[in-house]
Amino acid sequence: MREVLLKQVTVESEFWKSYLNLIKEETIPYQLSVLKDEIDVDVQAERKDEELPSGKSHAIENFKIAAGISQGEHFGWFFQDSDVYKWLESVGLLLQTTEDPQLEAHADDVIAIIEKAQEKDGYLNTYFQLKFPQLKYRQLYFSHELYCAGHLIEAGIAYDKGTGKSQLLDIAKRFVKHIEDHFGYENRKIQGADGHQEIELALVKLYDYTGDDTYLKLAQFFVNVRGEDPKFYQKEIESNLKLGLSADNPRVDLTYLQAFTQPKYQTKAVGHAVRMLYMATGMAKIVNREFDDELYQACLAIWDDIIKCKMYITGGVGSTVFGESFTGPYDLPNDTMYCETCAAIALLNFAYELFQLSPKVEYLDVIDRLIYNGILSGASLNGKQFFYVNPLEVDVDSCHHNPGKGHVKTQRPDWLGCACCPPNFARTVASIGRYVYLEDDGKLFVNLFIASRLLGEGYIIEQKTGFPFENSVDINYQGPEKIIIIHVPYWAKGLEVTCDKGEVIKKNTQQIDVLVRGNSCLRIRFEQPIYSVSCHPEVRSNIGKVAIQRGPFIFCSQALQNPDMKKYRVDRQKLPQATCEIQNDNLGKYIQLHLPCQKIKGWPNEALYLFDSENQFVSSDMTLIPYYLWGNQGETDMQVWFSEVM
Ligand code: FUB
Ligand code: ZN
């Protein structure tokens, strides 16, 4: 299967175009000002901990200091460089589909600084250059040097594609050469991997882009060497202590690092969620280029583990702040979880890679779940505030007073001391067109209902639709005979399809295969019913609860629209009376639901507990908004899972 180029796809969807404009006009310029410390914004630590960096970004300043352009000290996380790389990648992606000379000039300036910061031998990491040069590649359990290199590679490719300028890619290649010279199975080279996966998937992208298979080999090396010697990181620490290079003697958590055994033997999603999923994406990418059954089986097992018992209804993953990690099966607390935006993005990319290996609808269903819910919630409607943690339930007062919820922000901050998510959000939205179509041997996959046009080789396909606000998609195809495989999302009902010049060769609730004979028009009609969603009974936090979904959107209730929100009980029997309407207000254009509910009345306020009481109810409608929109109207309680009428 082959991905189409981003520049071949023009996104025309009203919904997604507004996000693309937001990224271009607001988010990307804003992020540059923050990275340059040009504007006064509230940069918060990601959780309550005085030790964590906050107050400013300093990310570009770090490069300037390393380049000798500024004086000062490194500030911020040791992986701060990656914020700049991800920003540059977003710019590169945008420039693949639009022109923006001013933005390009700004990006060129940043690239020039990065080039100056790079050492003559190719090494590039401002934290180690400025603070601990003696520890380069010697603290891999935490260093993120190769993680940053991975983001540099991705940025270099995107920028080269978007502008035809190779300067950033050349910087990345020089760094990769340095890495190649220091890592490998040959004698005297380092036989270990970075604590934070990322370089693996980036090297495969570099291989795809250049055709140079040394990059693929290096990616394979990093996947293979992880966990091969589970004592590797401990030995590294001991060696630093012995040589007096560092006094750090931490306990290395091999589960957190997914380094307790080689990835090919791993079967569960464990440890740090983003690391796990960047690793899994890298593994799947390798399998896709050079088939390796052991690695593929590991990918499938990890996927199954996530989908069957570790994924939230929004597509979010990572159930705990401790280690920003996966926990055990069915442990999905709604109010203390992590669901980091980056982890959702990582799951999106893992799913897309797996789909390309085997086109099963379940992968696209998860993509659909993620892009309309757990990823989109990551940014505010003005494109300038960002969630790191995406909770499914927020009690504002409890978040302020319960230290166990110190990581659950009630409002999206302007920026974060650990700012991995904001530029990750931007680069993901900027590349939304990448997920819509895939090509495979005369077949064309239409993965998502997103109004768009694909200029393929020898054909054009266009989706005309007002989805998600409308229930139909017209697909116009011009070109020679082809099989078009259309994914029908898991929530669609009452599917009807017609084709004027061709025939439907397969149709089920999840997929339509059409053989088009030349220029042809396909009409697809469907319903977006309002569903009540139940959760596996093993998930303790959702016992006796129900969630509400319409189309791709999971809905939530905010106390702002529903004062006394906790007193509402959902009555499934009344679901057919629920109504939906398109709203256009300070939340933009969106779908709002009105759900007939029962509301507890008459509870004496002074009584915390009552003996043998029977609740009294009154009928009352609850107003629900799509989850991704919550938190855009000021601080307010929010919930996704609702108690049911007993
Ligand atoms: O460590 C780099 C990034 O910062 C991770 O991917 C996120 O989870 C955050 O810890
Ligand atoms: Zn993040």
Please give a handful of descriptors for the protein shown.
646 residues; alpha+beta; Maltose phosphorylase, domain 3; six-stranded mixed sheet; 24 strands; 34% helix; globular; binds beta-L-arabinofuranose; binds zinc ion
Task: Tell me briefly what this model is.
This protein is α+β, with helices and mostly antiparallel strands. It is built from 16 helices and 24 strands.
Description:
- The structure is a single chain.
- Strand 20 and strand 21 (588-601) form a beta hairpin.
- The model has no long low-confidence stretch (mean pLDDT 97).
- Strands 4, 16, 17, 18, 19, 20, 21, 22, 23 and 24 form a ten-stranded antiparallel sheet that branches. Strands 1-6-7-11-14-13 form a six-stranded mixed sheet, with no helix packed on it.
- Helix content is 34%, strand content 19%.
- Among the domains are: 437-527, Sandwich (Maltose phosphorylase, domain 3); 530-643, no CATH class.
- By secondary structure, it is α+β, with helices and mostly antiparallel strands.
- It binds beta-L-arabinofuranose and zinc ion.
- The site of beta-L-arabinofuranose has 8 residues, from loops.
